[in-house]
């Protein structure tokens, strides 16, 4: 257990202080030093988890996650709780390994956000007894897909439940990092993702206004 806690502190140090945390994590992988024990293997399993090349030209889930943590590192100054935010960025797609399937020739990972919430709790409980921290990370993981669902008016959108558990602004910030953490990101795509974030925040604001719920103003 002491070894796991030491790794937890080491991971945390790089997530919080490195400009590009991916350099540390990829170095561990390249030198075959990435811990193979549970729960760290839940992360390394992402290396063998494929994604649709149409939506993720960067390749597997590990590559995507590394891009996301680097973008998150740049934007964590905007976060209400940077430590929670950075760990959520690292663990946000943990649910893809067990949910990724090939259906009719397409790679899918349905409900990876819900599975990811459970796995992120299990992951962090192995390393720390900070229940509030664990819950806040898991809630961000759970709701990180809502920007897609809300903006496209998909049936999976659930603003009501989301706002009970997490700051809308924090979800928007993590979702922006998630959307930008992809290969072949052009300026047009960047602007499109920024606009999607604004649309997401607007729809959430409308919802909470109609339902007299507390709302956190956007800050970027």
Radius of gyration: 17 Å
Uncertain segments are none
Tell me the number of structural domains: 1
Multimerization state = single chain
At CATH level 3, the topology is: Hypothetical protein af1432
- Mean of all residue-level pLDDT scores: 94
CATH classification class:
Mainly Alpha
**Main β sheet profile:** 2 strands, antiparallel
* Spatial order of strands in the largest sheet: 1-2
Query: So, CATH architecture?
Result: Orthogonal Bundle
The separation of the N and C termini measures: 40 Å
How many helical stretches? 12
> Strand-and-helix sequence, N→C?
HHHHHHEEHHHHHH
- Structural class by SSE content: mainly alpha
Helix content: 55-70%
% residues in beta strands: under 5%
Question: What characteristic shape results from the CA principal axes?
Answer: globular
Counting DSSP E segments of at least 2 residues, the number of strands comes to: 2
Protein name: HDIG domain-containing protein
Domain HD: 61-146
Keywords: Nucleotide-binding
Pfam family, one: HD
């Amino acid at each position: 257990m002491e070894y796991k806690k030491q790794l937890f502190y080491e991971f945390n140090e790089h997530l919080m202080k490195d400009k590009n945390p991916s350099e540390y994590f990829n170095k561990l992988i390249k030198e075959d030093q990435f811990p193979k024990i549970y729960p760290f293997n839940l992360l390394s399993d992402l290396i063998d988890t494929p994604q649709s090349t149409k939506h993720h030209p960067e390749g597997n889930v590990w590559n995507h996650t590394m891009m996301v943590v680097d973008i998150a590192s740049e934007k964590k100054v905007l976060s209400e709780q940077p430590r929670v935010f950075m760990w959520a960025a690292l663990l946000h797609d943990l649910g893809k390994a067990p949910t990724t399937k090939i259906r009719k020739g397409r790679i899918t990972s349905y409900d990876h956000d819900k599975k990811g919430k459970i796995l992120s709790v299990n992951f962090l409980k192995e390393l720390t007894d900070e229940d509030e921290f664990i819950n806040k990370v898991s809630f961000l993981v759970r709701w990180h897909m809502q920007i897609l669902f809300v903006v496209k008016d998909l049936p999976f959108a659930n603003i009501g439940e989301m706002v009970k558990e997490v700051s809308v602004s924090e979800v928007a910030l993590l979702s922006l990092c998630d959307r930008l953490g992809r290969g072949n990101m052009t300026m047009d795509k960047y602007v499109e993702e920024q606009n999607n974030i604004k649309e997401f925040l607007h729809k959430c604001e409308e919802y909470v206004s109609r339902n007299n719920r507390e709302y956190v103003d956007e800050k970027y």
